[in-house]
Amino acid sequence: MNYLSVVVAASLLLLGCSAVSTMDRTEPLASAAAIEGHMLFLASDELEGRDTGSRGHEIASLYIATQLQALGLQPAGDNGTFFQRVPLRSSRLVPNSARMVLHTADGDQALPYPKAFFSGADPVATESSVSAPLVFVGYGLISEEFGINDYQGLDLDGKIAVMLPGLPEHIPSEEAAHLGRERSRFAAEQGAVGIITIHTPQREAVRPYANSILYLNTPSMRWLDSDGQPGGVQRQLRGGAYVHHEAAEALFAQAETPLSAIFEQLEAKEMPAGFALNISATLSRQSTHEDITSPNVVAVLPGSDPTLRHEYVVLTAHSDHIGMIQDVRSDNRVNNGAMDNAAGVAILLETARMFTELEQAPKRSILFLVVTGEEKGLLGADYYAHNPTRPIENLIANVNMDMPVLLYPFADLIAFGANHSSLGPVVERAAAREGIRLSPDPMPEQAIFTRSDHYTLVRQGIPAVFLMTGFESQDPEQDAAAIWGSFFAKHYHKPTDSIADLTREYGPIRYDFGAIFTQINFNIALDLANDPQRPFWLQESYFHDVIGQPHTQQAVLEAAN
């Protein structure tokens, strides 16, 4: 799971809840032992942290593919295989190559790197440079729904946009996070040729500038399209920089409004308006590129209905993690990723087994998609969303499994995104069958709905939910919220996210509740596969009008009629 920060709710009521009796059940039952077996392999030291493009991840992908093949599922990757090879470009900034020079009436001023600014690698070109006037554009957002156009009245054609990080507080977190991901597109569509982002005092209080420069040598990755060009990149944006708030004062030295006034507006929760800065700047850098591939694994269980079998319920989980730590002083260097996301993949594999044991396949087909590159920016999922191995209009819903924390007997689940589509009641019924209830998002400010692989399909108009273990325990002696918070603070993206380390601290991994999680996942997918009506975005949801695709909405109308 790719979380930049997590805030845990401080106090939660405990709910007494027990699993539903299985005496009268006819569908297959999930196996805790099978989940344990999958996790033991996927989180083993031998896979060396499953980093995207690594040998360890290739082995993990082969294991997943052969498990799906052994179940009798059909390959749904490229060329009749279970694999979809994702072409990727790893880009690194050449050390000390980044330059930022301000051109003012008093002469040129070079800002020191990285004390005053830093820049990432350019995935498009190994040599890039742009010189252009600067224009302040506030947050750099455009939204008809929220009455925002930070570019109104501004000429950005051939200019460099100077913008603020973060998002306005009056916009709901999930909607704001979606808009934030569109900032580069907004700037490019207005004619900008570069972006400079200002590190504000408000951001310094949350994430110090010094913390960010610790990662300057980390490579960035992008998937490549059929022409070998990075996907999701606004190619006309030829320069970019992130500027410390003290150094950024020089950008406003000849402007009508000083930067200090902008910061005062932010403190007052106001939306600063844009204006020309009356200076220009040159941004330049050198980058190195390495092109690699890494596999998605794709399999399908064909549906039984002659018509509906051409539609697919998509179950996703990511198989990659973050590899090895570089500190040779430590003996524990493997980031095993037991919870993130060996647990999610194990649940997907066990869900697949359950489907193959049904006496009759569901009406719709089930597509099992295990993706690479989640930790690098949802790359494998985004590549699949742009290069689906089944028609995108036939993918009717997505249920995503990313980092279920199986450290306590959870009494509730969080279903991120359930409030946006007709999937909400389906998830609630499926959980209730197992004696588990749904709880509201305990940390809406984190906008988690936009932070995992399902979101790439959401952007294609496909309703989706992302399931997470809740903060309530069936054991009154355990504080589930405290355990969850402890895991994130001490073990998330660290070598101690291993079965051995977690067991030492929290006791045995709750594979039995992994089986309950699997049962819920199976219930959701089975209901969706057999329902004659396709899932749909709720009319009141922001995503209904912003990214709901015409083919999806039309199918809903046809089903309703």
From TrEMBL:
InterPro entries: M28_fam, PA_dom_sf, Peptidase_M28. CDD domains: PA_M28_1_1 (cd04820). Residues 1-19 form the signal peptide. Gene3D superfamilies: 3.50.30.30, Zn peptidases. Residues 296-502 form the Peptidase M28 domain. It comes from the Bacteria. Keywords: Signal. It comes from Alkalimonas cellulosilytica. Pfam families: Peptidase_M28. This is M28 family metallopeptidase.
